[in-house]
């Protein structure tokens, strides 16, 4: 395939993270972020490969204006990386929720765009800014291919026994209540990286991928497919996270409604924003700070680290059992990639699964950190890069398909 330039857009409610990548190796040529979209003054941060990061104030009343600034800066003759925006061959959009409609990334046409809009009910906070980003991008770059990459798509391979909750079946049929799982692009990307490193097809591997960042999830990847994952109907389920509670007894919120008259919004805030590390430590959600304070003797900070690691360990055990074996555990995300001490706590006592860490390699964040039968990897993920990788994959597939069709004619 001809070399391509791909712009990746990751649109949040008041921000757009972006990256420009060049195929064939997904080399990142620039990245940046527009923040405080909609405020009187917005900020634009930009970094060209191997250059200093710089920041300036801009006006961006909406995502369209923000994208306008991004494109102008990318093609700025002095500081940009493109001669003009027509160099952009494809735009990859992060879309949080694809519901049951998308089991893989999709080139955006009218029907696909409508389906993404139909998923708003499932992710009322996340999908609308993604949609605004797509709309702005179609307007500014009608010449480029537009590809939607879904956080949920990789997990659509789960079987009903994994994705259903033991609730009235009608809730699934009427309200689409089921496990969807998130971070799919990252789980898939790092699993593919491992397959390349060990030169073994994904179809021959049983992997557990631990994406440990501020948001965190674990996925069982069996024969290249997600067979179970810790996040659920929303990203609230599963691991202990920066500010999210993860698994709890669902009767607890009901109890708090009864005894404290808490509203849905208050509970939502507490479970999503005031729990996890933040809740246990009384206000800290950054692992680096928590590790420092635990080191200085804070029992609550130490407890938070132990609760976090124990929960990950519990999922590793569960998923090894679900897959009936384990070839490798993969750590990724800000915590997974950088904290040797958390990886050590998680892996301690797992020698019965063939897991033992090489302590020096673990402390040095090396790629392969195990000494025993089950391999343990540290693989950096990067949402934008994973999306660029997906875009290339989708367009390559499309080209092969077109070529076949041409040969057939
Ligand atoms: P998200 O993308 O979900 O917001 P990240 O993947 O960036 O989160 O991870 C953020 C977490 O990673 C924070 O808790 C942060 O403290 C932790 N982290 C980042 N760098 C390090 C490091 N060098 N050592 C330990 N933890 C780190």
Summarize the entry for a quick read:
With about 400 residues, the chain is an alpha/beta fold.
Describe this structure in words.
The structure is a single chain. The chain has 2 domains: 146 residues, ATPase, nucleotide binding domain (Nucleotidyltransferase, domain 5); 180 residues, ATPase, nucleotide binding domain (Nucleotidyltransferase, domain 5). The model has no long low-confidence stretch (mean pLDDT 95). The longest helix is centred in the C-terminal third of the chain and has 26 residues. It has 15 helices and 13 strands.
What is the mean predicted local confidence, pLDDT?
95
The CATH homologous superfamily name of the largest domain equals: ATPase, nucleotide binding domain
Give the CATH topology of the largest domain: Nucleotidyltransferase, domain 5
Strand adjacency order, main sheet: 5-4-3-2-1-6-8-7
Q: Tally the helices.
A: 15
In total, the number of domains comes to 2
Characteristics:
409 residues; alpha/beta; Nucleotidyltransferase, domain 5; 2 domains; eight-stranded mixed β-sheet; 15 helices; binds adenosine-5'-diphosphate
SSE order and pairing:
Blueprint: E1 5-11, E2 16-22, E3 27-35, E4 42-48, E5 53-58, H1 63-74, E6 90-95, E7 106-107, H2 110-118, H3 127-140, E8 145-150, H4 160-163, H5 169-175, H6 184-197, E9 206-212, E10 216-222, E11 225-229, H7 251-260, H8 264-273, H9 276-281, H10 287-295, H11 299-323, E12 328-332, H12 333-338, H13 340-347, H14 359-363, E13 375-378, H15 383-408
Parallel strand pairs: 1-6, 6-8, 9-12, 12-13
Antiparallel strand pairs: 1-2, 2-3, 3-4, 4-5, 7-8, 9-10, 10-11
This protein binds adenosine-5'-diphosphate.
